[in-house]
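User: Assemble these into one structure.

Assistant: Restating your components, then the assembled model:
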Amino acid sequence: MHVAESSAPLLEMHGIEKTFPGVRALDGVDLDVRAGEVHCLLGQNGAGKSTLIKVLAGAHQPDAGHITWRGAPASLSDPQAAMSLGIATIYQELDLVAGLSVADNIFLGREQSRFGLARPAVANRAAGELLTRLGHPEIRPGAEVGSLSAAAQQMVSIARALSQDARLIIMDEPSAVLDNEEVERLFGVIRDLTAHGVAVVYISHRLEEIRQIGDRITVLKDGRTVATGLPARETPTREVITLMTGRTIEYVFPPRRARVDTAAGPLLEVEGLSLRGRFTDVSFSVAPGEIVGLAGLVGSGRSEILETVYGARKATAGTVRLAGKRLRHGDVGAAVAGGIGLAPEERKSQALLLDDSVYRNISISSLGRFARGGFLRGGAERAAAREQVQALDVRPADVSRIVRTLSGGNQQKVVLARWLLRDCRVLLLDEPTRGVDVGARSEIYALIRDLADRGVAVVVVSSEIPEVLGLADRVLVIADGVVVAEAHADELDEHRVLDLVMEGTVAHAGAAPGTTGPTATKTEGDVA
Amino acid sequence: MSEGATATVATGSPSPSGGNGRAGLLAGPLGRNLGLVIALALLCIVGVATAGDRFASVDNVLTILRLASVIGVVSVGMTFVIIGGGIDLSVGALVALASVWASTLATQQIATDFHWIVMVVTALLVGAGAGLVNGVVIAYGKLVAFIATLAMLAAARGLAEIISNRRTQIIQDRDFLAFFSGDVLGIPTLVIIFALVAVAGWVLLNRTTFGRRTFAVGGNAEAARLAGIRVQRHTVKLYVLSGITCGIAAVMLMARTTTGSSTHGTLYELDAIAAVVIGGTLLVGGRGTIVGTVLGVLIFTTLGNVFTLNNLSSSAQAVARGVIIVLAVLLQMRLANRETRTRISKSPPAGALSAPGGPGGTAGGGSAVPGAPAGARPGGGDLQT
């Protein structure tokens, strides 16, 4: 049914196996990719996607299995071998040198030179041509890569792949750092690449994207291929999720309580909070047992609001009150001491000590509780961590395990366990399910609701609007650093939120009088 | 499924993890520092072979320990700073400044009027004060530690020269000298001080919240900050701690040489950093041990002793020192890799049982998720048609 179907496979992998000490990462993976197709690789965290990518990139050597490239057996003994065959990988964490120019990065390792002298003019021209071909002529070849946006950096990576005459480009969650418009432009580039016969292996947690851009799907589970060659557009979502998880899962959001009891008064009050250049005059309040969601696009200021409330950024105006007591701006220690916890957006760099054990990561914010006169009681500390690990069902349930070896969902649970152990009264969650597979998401949703039911005031930020709407009791819509609407979650739907965000005004909010719009925001803030 | 899984975990995990814990306590420090122990043993064999009884005598061993004690105390402080993600280049200069300040005529006069403890307190306060300046400049002034302590290195030694007028100051107080040059049950006081500092350092690093926070700050400062640790304040404490160890070292050096001098402690910073690094502490922070540092100090001191006994020049000794740094760190890395590898391969029982969905779960995984493979494959077939 597709053009791609008739063409011969560009890459075939059969029975690929890879064992790491103690972990069988790949246990018989089959994959065939045709020239000019977008082949989507799906699987939960820990299903083996990353290992498979690394085998393709030549970074890992498989223990068993065959790889055929353009009809001939191939060995991907090292990254150079993969590159010279025409396989390029664009990792989630882009491997660009921030201090070098765009052109330098594109030709890194293959610098244009004559008699040992660099020829920047030649390189710049060639880089400019590549970027123009990708539809991004606005990226200057001379610009420093570190000063570019995430989307532009991604384009530089793709340009580098093209400059190496890549026939197959592997993209590992390229959309994770992009907003909707940037994703659209990326898709434009991908379509252009495939039209020229380049194959793309596309990895994403967002099923909607796969519908949009993908041709065929391969599903991995537990290191094995459980389905391959599924048509990307026709396969029902339910089927895909069943394949990935082995059970039927819908985005199950836990039920809300009928009415949040606000009689006790708000626990967290934010009034007129501003951070110059990021957001202005943000006011909201959260009662114990309530989940408030902040919806908005990347760059709208939603994450910054959370970080400023927490004190990780220093507010330029406004107040944050916790149980009536004013918190000093820019003082994380005071926020934590008062009972606020933050699960930040970048789990690995902002929350975890990756090379430390699970229990140390959990206890880090509550060390005082396990200390007497500064001396730690190791037994009590481990026991408390073990309790949290079991309550949250972290797998494997081994508190001595190094956190780096856990999957994204389990790492997130470790972060949550840290704040649970601390008995937080206010929990700020920034993208709580980012990089978390579909199966673990429902668990995390249930966990968050359970926390709220136990009296914790929760603020959730997410770029996935359904997630905010499904999880929160009350939603603040944020556009360009301004709260454009506030309403109960069941009074909004995804389209309304998107409209509000797009308009960036309150014009559309009038439909639900009394609950949305800036006046409502103000009054609720004042009443609180 | 979860019931079955947690049940197996509950019975399965305590034994392996408990076993690991036992083994970690016994074999851990030794195993992790095996390279150093081997190096030290080799040095001793060479010492016995070349110098015989002159090396293997109680007197000589005590000499080695006494020589190791001053730099050893400084290295313990340095270990904390480096694990915490910093570096302290000013330690040698701080030793000089503290020794000079504690042995000025004025200080000695007060000491004779009151008690020699005044000199000790002065040295400790000078060390702590200079460390405080280091810490504040680094933590709140946001100056790179390398630069800030390099500046302190220059300034502190200069100040020591100004105070002492570049003269060596003789310690007059007999009680002070008698106390610190004496011994307890045949063990020199200096060695006992080193042992006490090392033990206190080990406890502080491994058994207190301070130590845990040091690892966290050095391992990932941003994560530590967002976890509620007051990173800046902790950084200041680390440099104050390093300064205090410099003060202790100054007192020990004053006792050993019976002088205070602005030339004391020259190049101590390099000796201390070398000992810390061959002791297995990562220069980027987040990981390190006191035991390794102590072994590192002993290796260098023993090396010097063996060379001296064989009448070899200090230049040859410097070359050997360089070679040892490289060899010890190489050996250390190999052994550390092997150790983590064996530790991981020992754990699969726990891993396989507790990760029902995990890739390794051949039997346990399959039974834990019964519907998965059966449900998945027919589904896949339907979709393809």
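Chain A touches chain B through 65 residues (CB under 8 Å).
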